[in-house]
Design a protein that fits this description.
Helices cover 29% and strands 16% of the residues. It is built from 11 helices and 14 strands. The strands form 4 sheets. The chain has an 8-stranded parallel barrel with strand order 3-4-5-10-11-12-13-14, surrounded by 4 helices. The protein has a two-stranded antiparallel ribbon with strand order 1-2. Strands 6-9 form a two-stranded parallel sheet. The mean pLDDT is 98. The structure holds P-hydroxybenzoic acid. The site of P-hydroxybenzoic acid has 6 residues, from loops.
């Protein structure tokens, strides 16, 4: 029988009941101290029928924060809060991986310890405004990281990975997409370094490879996925040759035997026009599983799997509004419509109150 969204699959060590992945989605509803709270447990538990849940992007350190009310993955209290999430998802037969996040320059001193400047590859201010507890504020010019600081950044990823494993996650996803720290190193618009971390593809990918090696050493390659967004202009990102850059990245990542490569196949958040890009060609460079993401529906998801382009498909907005999206797709049931006003922040409304199908 032909493979489709409902066929089981193994991503590294993770055995998925189906090929519908819940994409990472920032929801800004964590408790005090970045600790997941009971409403977050309910939200993820409701969506446990996804083949795999990838959590909202989760800061790996106090300096990795860039938005209000994010959960973290670096304190004991955060680990205890996440453990309740993973226990609830596992009790429902689901799988869940945590997305490891450092925002780099997409932050604001008011969100960082002692009003620190955000850090970045280069001191280049992104266009746009930060979401802060005081409302929208212009981004500031970040501080360029010094060479001596890279081992500390890698150590933060290692610590966060250990925390994620202690919290019971089935895997971790390294966030190297959407204009955040690791992507800021990859793409040339945000990286003007003249040392070993800037210039050539090899140099711009160096921090990503160091982080990936360190995370794989702790978690095992079969528990590690990685997300890229080659042409997403969101967060003021650009590159003159994304096809060659990201084919280089995919080739270089093969050395780690990762569980999957997750690819945002275009632009998000109305960040502008995405440059043309051949994702089918990119996919051929990566030897392990490929997770496709961006505005897929059931038909396009099934087609991507049937053609061999994708092994799994990540759905974002449809999972916000439909906790039972898998069942709805399976039975061709109508979908709830998502309310974008409640995507970011707030309480249960627009978070845990979307209805399930009734029998
Ligand atoms: C967001 O909060 O808008 C956001 C967070 C992480 C992403 C993309 C967007 O990867």
């Amino acid at each position: 029988m032909a493979l489709d969204l409902f066929s089981p699959v193994k991503l590294g060590s993770m055995s998925l009941n189906n090929r519908m992945v819940m994409a990472p989605l920032t929801r800004n509803r964590a408790g005090e101290g970045g600790v997941p709270q009971s409403v977050n447990v309910t939200y993820y538990e409701q969506r446990a029928s996804a083949g795999l849940i990838i959590t909202e992007a989760t800061p790996i350190s106090a300096m990795a924060h860039g938005y209000p009310a994010l959960p973290g993955i670096y304190t004991d209290a955060q680990v205890a809060g996440w453990k309740k999430v993973t226990d609830a998802v596992h009790a429902k037969g689901g799988k869940i991986a945590l997305q490891l996040w450092h925002v780099g320059r997409i932050s604001h001193p008011s969100l960082l310890p002692s009003g620190a400047l955000p850090v970045a590859p280069s001191a280049i201010k992104p266009a746009g405004q930060a979401f802060t507890y005081q409302g929208l504020q212009d981004y500031v010019t970040p501080r360029a990281l010094e060479l001596a600081e890279f081992p500390d950044i890698v150590a933060d990823y290692v610590h966060a990975t250990k925390c994620a494993l202690a919290a019971g996650f089935d895997g971790v996803e390294i966030h190297a997409a959407n204009g955040y720290l690791l992507d800021q190193f990859l793409r040339e618009g945000s990286n003007k370094r003249t040392d070993n971390y800037g210039g050539s593809f090899e140099n711009r990918a160096r921090l990503l490879m160091e982080v990936t090696k360190a995370v794989v050493d702790v978690a095992g390659s079969d528990k590690v996925g990685l997300r890229i967004s080659p042409v997403n202009p969101f967060n003021d990102m650009n590159d003159s040759n994304p096809q060659a850059l990201f084919e280089y990245v995919a080739d270089a990542l093969n050395q780690f035997n990762l569980a999957y490569l997750h690819v945002v196949e275009g632009g998000i958040h109305g960040g502008g026009e995405a440059a043309p890009f051949d994702f089918v060609a990119l996919r051929k460079h990566f030897k392990n599983a490929y997770m496709a993401n961006l505005a897929y529906d059931k038909a396009r998801g099934n087609a991507a799997i049937a053609s061999g382009h994708a092994d799994v498909v990540a759905y974002g907005v449809p999972f916000i509004a439909n906790p039972d999206l898998v069942e709805r797709y399976r039975t061709n049931a109508p979908l709830n419509e998502a309310d974008s006003k409640t995507f970011y922040g707030g309480s249960e409304k627009g978070y845990t109150d979307y209805p399930f199908l009734t029998a």
